[in-house]
Amino acid sequence: MKIKAIIHEAEEGGYWAEVPGLPGCITEGDNMEELMVNLKDAIEGWLEVANEVQSSEKTQDKIVEIAV
C-alpha cells in the first residue's frame, strides 16, 4: 500500500509530516531518517485504530477503493 505524505521543515529544526488521506495523522523527526521511521509507525497506528473502530461498529456501510 502506498500512502502520500507531505513533509515540512520544522522552524525549530528537523522535520514534520502530515498524511492528508488520514486526518490527524502527523509526526516529526530530528532528521529525515527518523521522520520516515516515525511516519511509518504513525500510519500503521492510525490504520490499526481505524480498523478497530470500524470492526466495533455495527453498520451496513462498506468502504471500497476504486482506481481511476
Automatic annotation (TrEMBL):
Domain of life assignment: Bacteria
Pfam family, one: HicB_lk_antitox
SUPFAM superfamilies: TTHA1013/TTHA0281-like
Ranges of residues in domain HicB-like antitoxin of toxin-antitoxin system: 5-61
InterPro entries tied to this protein: HicB-like, TA_system_antitoxin, TTHA1013/TTHA0281-like
Protein's name according to its UniProt entry: Type II toxin-antitoxin system HicB family antitoxin
The species this protein was found in: Gomphosphaeria aponina SAG 52.96 = DSM 107014
